[in-house]
Amino acid sequence: MKLSKNDVVLFSGDSITDGNRGKSMDCNHIMGHGYQYIVAGRLALDNAENMPKFINKGYSGDVAEGLLENWQRDVIDNKPTLLSILVGVNDGGRGYFDKITPDEACERHEKGLRAILELTRKELGDIKIVLCEPFYCPLDKSDYSYKFTPHPDGVEGPFKRPDSNDPEDSVAYRAAANEKIRAVTKKIAEDFGCIFVPLYDKIYEQAARSRIEYFVWDGTHPSIAGHMLIAEEWLKALDKV
User: Fold this and answer.
1) What is the DSSP string of 194-215?
2) Would 177 disulfide with which of 79, 96, 105, 131, CB 3.0-4.6 Å?
3) Is 5 helix (H, G, I), strand (E, B) or coil?
4) Per-residue DSSP letter, 81
5) Cα separation, 54 vs 212, whole angstroms
6) Mean pLDDT of residues grouped by 10 in the chain (241 residues)?
7) What does the alpha-carbon distance between residue 232 and residue 219 come to, in Å, rounded to a whole number?
């Protein structure tokens, strides 16, 4: 993908995008780890002669409504020419704890995401906007070890996966909510002329080669293989434009 010297690529979203990013100008950590780091690295190297800029404004645990609260400061004021958003998986968890229906969780996500895009279009005009499909992948509950991830089980201590504490009704709720959230995100992308990056089916296609845990290690967060998959699908989607 060709970028110019005036291009600013900004990534927004939840913990998948946050990637434990640095909150200072330490350029070794400022982008965090994950798909956004891979994409930014690829584009930076390919366009080094033009020196485009890259920003990560992901927030762990956030939903669209949460991103909206700081949208002016985080996004509008930075004037990106290409904006990428991956958000939605946390709406299922919040909806479950707030005791609302999956439909209501989806409506809350839709309201927040539409408000974000309306503000962006109003303030930044016809910039390129990428909407990534949010995903949630329930895992096998019979084994909560890490042996199916890309890393040896126990290499950093005797830990159980975070999803081992998730009640079964919570898992079912989040899966139902995410199915609706995925569909509405695609519809919103069409309504606002965004570039849509499909991910859910792609993850399961690749997981057929091994295990879903190898790509999404706790049902929510990608592994190194999962982040590479997202990065590749992101770049493919942009190359088609």
Assistant:
1) PEEE--HHHHHHHHTTS-GGGT
2) 105
3) coil
4) S
5) 30
6) 97 98 96 98 98 98 97 98 98 96 98 98 98 97 94 89 94 98 98 98 98 97 98 96 82
7) 20
